[in-house]
Write a structure and sequence with these properties.
The chain has 198 residues and is of the alpha/beta class. The protein is built from eight helices and four strands. 51% of the residues lie in helices and 8% in strands.
C-alpha cells in the first residue's frame, strides 16, 4: 500500500533564514535575550523587545517568503545532483509541492537542474508546510511574542508545547493531523510509485 519511495526535499535558503541569522548576531538582540532570560516581564526587557520588534519586522507573510539567490542555487544544484544519481534516485512519478513561495521556487530551480522533472505531474498541497504560528508571526520571534503576550507564555506552559495552539495558528497536534491526512493520500493514491515531497 505504500509508495515505492518517498523523497523529502526541503526548500533552499530563504530570505527569512538570512534575517534570522543577522538577528542572532545582533548585539542588541543578544542583550534582549539575556534580559528575557533574567526577567521576561521587566521594563528593560520590554524596551529592548520594542527595539527588536521594529528592527526585524517581517515585510511579507510566511507564505510569501522568497528564496535568496543562494537558495535558488542550492535548489538548482540539488536537481542537478539528483539527476546525476538517477540510477539510485529514479525520476518521480509525482511531485507534491507545498504552495509556499520558497518551496515553489525550490522546485522551479530543481527543474532547471534536472530538465526531465518538468514532465512530472506536480500537485500543490497545503498540508505539507510549516506550523502556522498565527499572531506570533507579527513578532518574528517567540520570545518577543511572549513579552507582548505574557498570558500566551503562561498558557503554553500550562498546556504543554504539543497541545498549545498559537492565536489564529495551529498546535503541533494540528500539524500531526495534517501530516496524517497527507500520509493517507500517499497510501490511497500513490502506492508503488516514486513520490517526492517538496
Amino acid at each position: 500500500k505504500w509508495p515505492k519511495s518517498i523523497t523529502i526535499i526541503r526548500h533552499g535558503e530563504s530570505e527569512y533564514n538570512v534575517l534570522k541569522g543577522i538577528k542572532e548576531k545582533d548585539p542588541e538582540y543578544q542583550d534582549f535575550r539575556k534580559a528575557f532570560e533574567r526577567d521576561n516581564k521587566s521594563l528593560t526587557t520590554k524596551e529592548l523587545a520594542e527595539i527588536i520588534k521594529e528592527k526585524y519586522a517581517v515585510s511579507v507573510s510566511d507564505y510569501k517568503t522568497p528564496l535568496t539567490k543562494q537558495g535558488i542555487e542550492q535548489a538548482f544544484l540539488t536537481g542537478k545532483r539528483l539527476h546525476e544519481q538517477s540510477a539510485e534516485q529514479p525520476i518521480p512519478d509525482i511531485i507534491i509541492c507545498s504552495p509556499y513561495l520558497r518551496t515553489v521556487e525550490t522546485l522551479a530551480a530543481m527543474q532547471r537542474g534536472w530538465a526531465d522533472l518538468k514532465n512530472v505531474f506536480v500537485r500543490h498541497d497545503d498540508r505539507i508546510r510549516e506550523q502556522d504560528h498565527g499572531l506570533a508571526l507579527l513578532y518574528n520571534d517567540r520570545m518577543l511574542f511572549n513579552v507582548f503576550h505574557p498570558e500566551q507564555k503562561a498558557l503554553r506552559g500550562l498546556k504543554d508545547s504539543y497541545w498549545y495552539k498559537f492565536p489564529q495558528g495551529e498546535s503541533i497536534s494540528d500539524v500531526r493531523d495534517r501530516i496524517g491526512s497527507m500520509i493517507t493520500t500517499l497510501i490511497r493514491e500513490w502506492a508503488e510509485k516514486n513520490v517526492w515531497l517538496v
